[in-house]
Each structure stands twice: as structure tokens, then as C-alpha cells.
Amino acid sequence: MPLTLATTTPGEPEIFASLQGEGPSMGQPSTFVRLSRCNLACQWCDTAYTWRFTGDNRPHRDALAFERSENQVAMEEAALAERIAALVPDRLVITGGEPLLQGAALARMLAVLDDLRPGMHVEMETNSTVAPHPALDARVNQYNVSPKLAHSGNPADLALLPERLAAWAAEPRAYFKFVIATPDDLDEVRALRETYAIPGARLFLMPEGRSSDVIRERSGWLADFCAANGLRFTDRLHIHLWGDTRGT
């Protein structure tokens, strides 16, 4: 069964080698695979081309609609594994969209990849709302979990599912990454941390922004908050290096 990927240009799947730009693995050489489709709709999403296709009226601050045929491509599991194996990094980051929507197919793809490149470190990015497929979960080394706060525009009953947040908080492979736009967002993080007993060592705060200027402006007060509250700060390294572009 093919996987549904995002594209860098029409027909070309978004598979690339770069540096991980965020979270606990920031700066690590990594191969990225960006999948298409998402069950949430963040109004500041920087990959809206993975879900906001023509006819989708969910709010987004850019109000852009993307043609599905130009921004989505199907790829067989074995072919994807071969493309990943041909790249240099031994760390694979699977992102989206929401990758866990395609969990069963990802598990089959990783089984093929293990024959081609045994032992690759697998990072799975997720918005926290979807449980991992059991066969996929057995192959993931690290989860980068990014629950969406109120400023994302998603209703809490869709974006902040208590049973899923509790499960991620209890999962030692899961690192939480909260996107922060204003100081008001920090009260929501405090409440979630207390409710689900999220360890500070696994909780990152990241400034929301698609330009270096915006990220730097927000980084000062956010870094101060992290230092004062025993939390971890993460930059958006890829934005500083390459800007807000696909395939980076």
C-alpha cells in the first residue's frame, strides 16, 4: 500500500538530507520524509501545503489553498525505503502533516529499510492526538510530540486529548515541544505540565515564527522563562540557515 507524501515540486516527494532544526536532536544530520494529510489545522502552520487543499476552508493566517495534485504524491513503501537508504544520514525523521495517520504503512516501510540500512535511528513527529500503530511503535527510537495550544486555533477537544497526553507523558521516548507565540501561552503550558506530570527534561518550548527576526524577538523572553522554570528551550535552526522553504 503506498504512502502519501508531500512534495517539494509537483511530482517530487519531499525526501531530503539536512540537519534536524528543532528539539533534542537539533543539529544532528538527518534524513527527512514529509508525509501529507493532517487531522488538525493550525492557523500558523508552516506546512499548510500538506493539508489545506482547495476546498478545505479550515482557518489559516495565509488563507492559501493548495492544489492536491501538485502537493501530494503516492509512493510505494519499498521505493521510499530505497530513497531513504541512499542518503547519508543514519537518523530518519518522519514528519508531516500527521505521520501517525499512516502508521501501518510506515511500519512496513521501516521493515524494508531495516534490511537495506539496519539500525537507523527513527524519530517520529506527531501532534499528540493519534496513538502509534503497534508495529510502528516497536521501531521508533524517539517521539517528538507537539500538542497544539489554544493559539493554534484548534478546539481543545480535538487537539488536547487527555488519554493521549497521559500516554505520551508516561512514554520515556517522548519529548514534548510546545510552540509559543506570546507570554500568555505559558500559562497553558504550566497547566498541562502539572496535569500530566510532564518531566522538565522532556519538555521543550519553541518560539513560533517563520523568519529569523520573529524567532529571535521571541527567543529572549522565552529562554528566560525556560531557565527560571527548569524547562528546555529549542530554536528553529533550519529557519536561520535556509529560511521557510521546503526540503530543508
Automatic annotation (TrEMBL):
Residues that coordinate or bind Mg(2+): T47
Function: Catalyzes the complex heterocyclic radical-mediated conversion of 6-carboxy-5,6,7,8-tetrahydropterin (CPH4) to 7-carboxy-7-deazaguanine (CDG), a step common to the biosynthetic pathways of all 7-deazapurine-containing compounds.
Reactions the enzyme catalyzes: 6-carboxy-5,6,7,8-tetrahydropterin + H(+) = 7-carboxy-7-carbaguanine + NH4(+)
Binding locations of [4Fe-4S] cluster: C38, C42, C45
Family: Belongs to the radical SAM superfamily. 7-carboxy-7-deazaguanine synthase family.
Protein name (database record): 7-carboxy-7-deazaguanine synthase
Enzyme class: lyase
SUPFAM superfamilies linked to this entry: Radical SAM enzymes
Organism: Novosphingobium panipatense
Residue intervals of the Radical SAM core domain: 25-244
Record lineage: Bacteria, Pseudomonadati, Pseudomonadota, Alphaproteobacteria, Sphingomonadales
EC number(s) stated in the UniProt entry for this protein: 4.3.99.3
Cofactor: Mg(2+); [4Fe-4S] cluster; S-adenosyl-L-methionine
Subunit structure: Homodimer.
Positions bound to S-adenosyl-L-methionine: W44, C45, D46, G97, S146, P147, K148
Keywords: 4Fe-4S, Iron, Iron-sulfur, Lyase, Magnesium, Metal-binding, Queuosine biosynthesis, S-adenosyl-L-methionine
